[in-house]
Amino acid sequence: MALKFGKAAFSGLPAAVLTILSLLMCARPAMAAQAAANGADTAWVLISAALVMVMLPGLALFYGGMVQRKNVLSSLMHSFVALGVLGLLWIVAGYSLSFSGGNWFIGDLSQFMLNGTSINSVRGTIPTYAFVMFQGMFAIITPALISGAVAERMTFKSYLAFVVLWSFLVYYPLTHWVWGGGWFQAAGGLDFAGGLVVHLSAGASALAIAYVIGKRRGFPGEMFVPHNLTMTLLGVGLLWFGWFGFNAGSALAANATAALAFTATMTAAAAGACSWMVMEWVIVKKPSALGFASGIVAGLGAVTPASGFITPGYAMIIGIVSGALCFYGVRMKFKMLYDDALDVVGVHGLGGVWGTLATGLFATAGATGLIAGNPRQLGIQALGVLVVGLYCILVTYAIAMVLEKTMGLRVCEDDEFAGLDEELHGEVGYSI
After folding, report:
1. Distance CA 317, CA 302 (A)
2. What is the rounded distance in angstroms from the CA atom of residue 2 to the CA atom of residue 169?
């Protein structure tokens, strides 16, 4: 039987009790607003942010194993220092410039130092702080990817200046274009986890700075043999592991889209690795560990923009094509005579181009591409590739030229010969 309460039911209560009851009733909407964040979604995004952070040491090991012994610490430092410097920069201004209102090109500084964000702030179904940290990991790893192109010859101070300038002039605007309400997002462009923002931007920028800084001593005649491939394989394992947070975490929820992105990520990485291995087996006659590792990264990078929009079958196609495409892509530097030391252009750049276009071809989940009867999507994706690629090349070239004329980009010939570890950091990676 329903209970009915009128004024008479409260007439005998003291005024103080009535006041407390009225305050509690008024507090209910506020309590409901604080509970808007979903616990499962929050936990998944926080775990995903941590997984992406693990990719930094993974990248450090992946790159570190491929350089010469005398430059291993220098290479490792390029990834680790980004965690500190760019991690702070993101909190101070990067998040605001990327995700505040602003205009079609870049956000504003209304959220400088995360102004206006509190413990109760929510973005979608997760706390705003969780979103800030997840996106911050992307802002850290992207400039670190570029370091592979200038390995073994760039001064440390110039590298620090470069990643700071590049973040402000390239990464934050791109993030706003694609995810923060800028022109590409407004046009209906698709980039689930960073094909344009991360991989194409890193690859195109690597091409520009590689031309400015010049070739390593002895390139292309001298063979630059990786000094520790076991380190490289361990690094790629950590990258693969972290990439599940990179892609599936971009769903920003513990839901079916995250599961789809997780599955697509695994499928494309495996397909890319096998495709690269077959290419080497047929052409070079010997499948190498480095080639298999490179195929993994090619598949992962290519599926990134599409991972939340495609079925596993299309993810397999993306991986297979990326393995073959990037296999040839890394050989471009010998014909075009630029020294991309660790193949950022051939793997991340070409992988990002292919993956972004493939999103416009194969999107069938949560979006439609050419296969699903929407040819316009492929056109938008192609426009994104063209604009982002040109913007990154031109702005990065300008940054590199300014640094070259002011600070100088590369070490002297004697320091390059002796090794950057001891000359720039005063220590060595191996004592024996």
Report:
1. 10
2. 65
Residue of 116, 126, 117 lying closest to 47 (CA atoms)? 126
Per-residue pLDDT tens for 156-182? Answer: 999 999 999 999 999 999 999 999 999
At CA 206, angle to CA 64 and CA 261, rounded to 5?
75
Distance between CA atoms of residues 251 and 136, nearest Å: 16
The span from the first CA to the last CA of the chain, in angstroms, equals 85
Q: Is the dihedral of CA 334, 226, 288, 243 positive or negative?
A: negative
Query: DSSP labels for 90-141?
Result: IIIIIHHHHHSS--SS---STTGGGTT--TT-EETTEEHHHHHHHHHHHHHH
Of 209, 225, 255, 62, nearest to 141 by C-alpha is 62
The domain covering 36-425 belongs, at the CATH homologous superfamily level, to Ammonium transporter AmtB like domains (1.10.3430.10)
Query: Is there a contact between 141 and 82 (Cβ–Cβ < 8 Å)?
Result: yes
- Tell me the pTM: 0.91
For 47-104, the pLDDT digits (tens) are: 999 999 999 999 999 999 999 999 999 999 999 999 999 999 999 999 999 999 999 9
Residue 61 vs residues 241, 248, 278, 292, 366: alpha-carbon distances, Å? 14, 23, 25, 16, 36
DSSP string of 10-54, one letter each residue: HTTS-HHHHHHHHHHHHHHHHHHHHTTS-HHHHHHHHHHHHHHHH
Q: How far apart are CA 291 and CA 141, in angstroms?
A: 22
Dihedral sign for Cα atoms in the order 174, 179, 184, 186: negative
8 A C-beta contact, residue 155 and residue 411:
yes
Using CA atoms in the order 5, 7, 11, 15, what is the torsion angle rounded to 10 degrees?
100
Where are the domains positioned within the chain? 36-425
Q: Which two tokens stand for residue 130?
A: 């969780």
The C-alpha angle with vertex 82 and arms to 137 and 355, in degrees rounded to 5, equals: 50
Q: What is the DSSP string of 137-203?
A: HHHHHHHHHHGGGGTTTB-HHHHHHHHHHHIIIIIHHHHHHHHSS-HHHHTT---SS-IIIIIIHHH
Amino acid at residue number 73: L
